[in-house]
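Inverse folding, one chain.
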């Protein structure tokens, strides 16, 4: 989407290169090549060069050559699709370890839609009756993309259900982060950065405690 280009251009510049390593894992069951093509079309508009890494099942996620390729990347991008598939394929694999290694080495790691949802300990989409297990990279944050698609009653209903069902939300050890479309929240050392065209809201113990409208920046706490 054109509205997301400034956000991803910032991430691309931050990576220090032009290559974007795209993992279409979340789209593994539904035309992953189309997810790659969409990413290529998007990133080429801002000077990026997409290289697909077809991690589509547990076998490819365990391939040492793929893990080595991911670990050396400067920009790793997880596409949208099915968050359950993404989490189940990557969980406990060399490919996921390689993503974490790349990040620890200073690479940009970004996820769109499903790619953002899997980062926390739990995933809770508005239409789900129960939370699912995430990858736990962000141990105290549950991410909800497309948050602007929910009107006020549905948003309140989602938060009430999450208060009952998402582990740690009721006691404040886990927060929920609702992100509007074409908006990104960058966790950069000890700073939040909200970039793009919309807003993001953090909920703690069932209450909205902070809303940012992009562009915004604040200490991470």
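Residues assigned per position:
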């Amino acid at each position: 989407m054109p509205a997301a280009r400034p956000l991803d251009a910032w991430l691309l510049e931050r990576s220090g290169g032009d290559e974007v390593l795209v993992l279409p894992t979340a789209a593994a069951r539904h035309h992953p090549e189309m997810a790659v093509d969409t990413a290529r079309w998007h990133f080429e508009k801002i000077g990026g060069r997409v290289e697909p890494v077809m991690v589509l099942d547990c076998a490819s996620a365990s391939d040492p050559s793929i893990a080595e390729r991911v670990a050396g990347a400067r920009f790793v991008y997880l596409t949208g699709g099915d968050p359950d598939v993404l989490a189940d394929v990557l969980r406990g694999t060399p490919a996921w370890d390689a993503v974490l290694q790349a990040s620890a080495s200073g690479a940009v790691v970004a996820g769109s839609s499903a790619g953002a949802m899997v980062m926390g300990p739990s995933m809770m989409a508005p239409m789900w009756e129960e939370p699912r297990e995430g990858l736990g990279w962000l141990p105290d944050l549950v991410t909800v993309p497309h948050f602007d698609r929910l009107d006020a009653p549905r948003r309140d209903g989602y938060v009430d259900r999450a208060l009952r069902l998402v582990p740690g939300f009721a006691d404040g050890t886990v927060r929920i982060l609702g992100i509007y479309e074409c908006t990104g929240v960058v966790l950069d050392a000890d700073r939040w950065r909200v970039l793009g065209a919309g807003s993001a809201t953090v909920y703690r113990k069932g209450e909205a405690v902070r809303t940012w409208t992009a562009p915004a920046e604040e200490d991470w706490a």
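The first strand starts at residue 19 and ends at 23. Residues 152-165 form the longest helix (14 residues).
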